[in-house]
Amino acid sequence: MRELLIGDRTFRALESALSGISPSLLAKRLTALMDDGLVGRNDAPPRSKSVEYHLTDAGRSLEPVIIDLIRWGTRWMLGGPGDDLVDPRWAPLALRALLEDQPAGRGRVHLDVDGIEVTVSASNGRRRVTPGHHGLPDATVAAPLPALLAMAAGAVTLQRSTVAVSGDAAVADELLCAPVAGDRDGR
User: Fold this and answer.
1) Which of 109, 117, 102 is nearest to 152 (CA)?
2) Which CATH number characterizes residue 148's domain?
3) Are strands 107-113 and 139-142 parallel, antiparallel or unpaired?
């Protein structure tokens, strides 16, 4: 479900993203999800390389649950990924879970997460995360996903991170970082 929240996927793309899953198990799970009305597929001929799977409206309605699971898992993000797979395509969804709707001033930051473009913006006092680059940024940040997740989860500050920032670092700090526990000034 997480992979399909990111976007439509072919069988091979799903198999590649779901490390360790056998083709037969993936086929069974996709069939069950389609039978339950959560996943659909395009009308390419069966077993064609152009078959793509997508979430139905019912499947997309599970997005808040998956966002809550990502938030719940934040405690394990703080130690870094270790040997776990980290896919930069997860950036928009993971950053939405950690940053979206959190209080912030105003501004816009373009992110380059290992080739994946994301925009974090704030207006009306709330942050928004969208895939792609939109509008003129106040700052641009290039970083691997684990570094951004550590900042968004409050494990490190922008100043203590290894991210590359161009433009207004104060806007990047405000939009990308959660307060770090134990810091006197909240950053």
Assistant:
1) 102
2) 3.30.1050.10
3) parallel
Question: How far is the C-alpha of 151 from the C-alpha of 111, rounded, in Å?
Answer: 13
Sequence-distant (6+) residues with CB within 8 A of 103 are 125, 126, 127
Whether this model's pTM surpasses 0.85? no
Residue 22 covered by a domain? yes
Within a domain: residue 181? no
Q: Are residues 160 and 116 in the same domain?
A: yes
User: At which residue do the structure tokens 């930051």 appear?
Assistant: 109
Same domain, 154 and 137: yes
| 127 plus 139 within the same structural domain | yes
Q: Which are the contacts of 149, defined by CB distance < 8 A and separation ≥ 6?
A: 77, 94, 95, 98
d(CA 184, CA 151): 17
Name the DSSP letter for residue 45: P
- The β-bridge partners of 41 are 53
pLDDT (tens, 9 = 90+) of the chain, 187 residues, equals 989 998 899 999 999 888 889 999 999 999 999 999 999 999 877 777 788 999 999 999 999 999 999 888 877 766 665 666 677 888 899 999 999 888 888 999 999 999 999 999 998 889 999 999 999 999 999 999 888 988 888 888 888 888 899 999 999 999 998 865 544 344 3
Dist. CA 147–CA 120, nearest whole Å: 15
Contact indicator for 83, 98 with CB cutoff of 8 Å: no
